[in-house]
Write a structure and sequence with these properties.
The complex is a heterodimer of chains A (about 300) and B (about 90). Chain A is of the alpha/beta class and about 300 residues long. Chain A has one domain: Rossmann fold (3-Layer(aba) Sandwich), CATH 3.40.50.970. Chain A has 12 helices and 9 strands. In chain A, strand 6, helix 8 and strand 7 form a beta-alpha-beta unit. The longest helix of chain A has 24 residues. Chain A starts with a helix and ends with a helix. With about 90 residues, chain B is α+β, with helices and mostly antiparallel strands. Chain B has a domain of about 60 residues: Alpha-Beta Plaits (2-Layer Sandwich), CATH 3.30.70.20. Helix content of chain B is about 10%, strand content about 20%. Chain B has 2 helices and 5 strands; from the N terminus they run ββαββαβ. In chain B, a hairpin with a 5-residue loop joins strand 3 and strand 4. The chains are: A alpha/beta (about 300), B alpha+beta (about 90). At the A-B interface, helix 1, helix 2, strand 2 and helix 10 of A face strand 1, helix 1 and helix 2 of B. Strand 2 of chain A pairs parallel with strand 1 of chain B, so a sheet runs across the interface.
């Protein structure tokens, strides 16, 4: 039982105890692991999102790396600026990380991110996807899944399928795009280490379960992150230089196992679950076909 | 003037443990480790969202109850069920 020891993570803490994240926050686990992998030579740029709240009030902060809080739509622009300023000063070993929620990436921040990717800036953009605007009170976002309850889709749930942002980013033909889930720790750490080595724009999309917004037991965060992959609802893949590769191929479990743990899917009818399941299978098989055919973006 | 002269008016925060106080007071259920069952795998340490589980030199986990919010993730991920959640005593 030395699985975790073999991952080679440092015991140094970069996310300090006493931050104000909710019980069982998936974002806090993700941030902790990301900073343990990237190390202390990292600059975080954070737009308005849960992360700008959990770091704590002035004059204290719970993050042990330099952190810059900026406006909602400008993460992509700000990391481009920080990265170029470092280049002018001749500093090569610092990672500039845009750390944004799904609202600040999928909806509001997409133009700045798309611009930075198109210009080929040397940046790492990480989106932790909690699938709604959790910080302001669980409003629907472009990344909220079909059927999910939010405060702005209160009675019947969301009626649209979410945007596929990793593939939108892959269509920019950037060197590295990946999705990861904290349920599959070794896969996530491998992808982060790979992104660390590559120069140019890199994009990683992390699943980040939110007990408050998803209406699940705070103890089930890791279990749900794992089930999302096992039911194919969150396919784990990477797109390296335009080539798609599905990195974890689990045997499919029924989607009901994943959604029955979450209160936000409580009102779904059997017909809607079937529709969701068909879409999940279609998306996963599309990725497998892309991998098999070897087509490049 | 030097940059340092402006630090007292600049909106720059300092990293510190307990930025929002002792979050252990939020706790309803308290995790208790059974050290005889524990295999020292480190899963609770890596999955603790509050960084309140420390690993000692020999990888024995130790919970910092000042900041543990009692979410129960450590108990859920433990492969040998060595962590029990017990109701916090009131008063």
């Amino acid at each position: 039982m030395s699985a975790v020891r073999n991952l080679g993570l440092t015991k140094e803490r970069f996310l300090l105890p006493g931050h104000s994240a909710c019980h069982g926050c998936g974002l806090a686990i993700n941030l902790k692991i990301v900073l343990k992998v990237l190390g202390k030579r990292t600059i975080l740029v954070i737009p308005a999102c849960c992360s700008s709240v959990i770091q704590g009030p002035y004059p204290k902060v719970a993050f042990k790396v330099p952190t810059m809080n900026i406006a909602f739509a400008s993460t992509g622009a700000a990391i481009s600026g920080v990265s170029r300023a470092l280049k002018i000063r001749g500093i090569e070993d610092v990672f500039v990380v845009g750390w944004a929620g799904d609202g600040g990436t999928v909806d509001i921040g997409i133009q700045a991110l798309s611009g930075a990717a198109e210009r080929g800036e040397n940046i790492l953009y990480i989106c932790y996807d909690n699938q709604a605007y959790m910080n302001t009170g669980i409003q629907r976002s472009g990344s909220t899944p079909y059927g999910a309850w939010t405060t702005t889709t209160p009675i019947v749930g969301k009626k649209q399928f979410p945007k596929d942002l990793p593939l939108i980013m892959a269509a920019h033909r950037i060197p590295y795009v990946a999705t990861a889930s904290l349920g599959y720790l070794a896969d996530m750490i491998r992808k982060l280490r790979k992104a660390k080595e590559i120069k140019g724009p890199r994009y990683i999309h992390l699943l980040s379960p939110c007990p408050v917004g998803w209406r699940h037991d705070s103890a089930h965060t890791v279990r749900i992150a794992k089930l999302a992959v096992d039911t194919w609802a969150w396919p784990l893949y990477e797109v390296e230089n335009g080539r798609v590769k599905v990195t974890v191929k689990p045997k499919r479990k029924p989607l009901k196992e994943y959604i029955s743990l979450q209160g936000r899917f409580k009102r779904l009818t059997d017909g809607e679950i079937k529709l969701m399941e068909e879409e999940v299978i279609r998306r996963y098989e599309m990725l497998l076909k892309m991998e098999k055919s070897g087509i490049e973006f | 003037m030097e940059m340092a002269d402006f630090f007292h008016i600049m909106p720059v925060s300092k990293p510190s443990v307990g930025a929002v106080g002792k979050t252990g007071t939020w706790r309803v259920f308290k995790p208790i480790i059974d050290h005889e069952k524990c295999t020292r795998c480190g899963l609770c340490w890596i999955y603790c969202p509050d960084e309140s589980i420390e690993l000692k030199e020999d990888d024995t986990p130790k919970i910092n109850y000042d900041f543990c919010k009692g979410c129960g993730i450590c108990s859920d991920v433990c492969p040998v069920k060595a962590i029990k959640m017990e109701a916090e005593e009131i008063g």
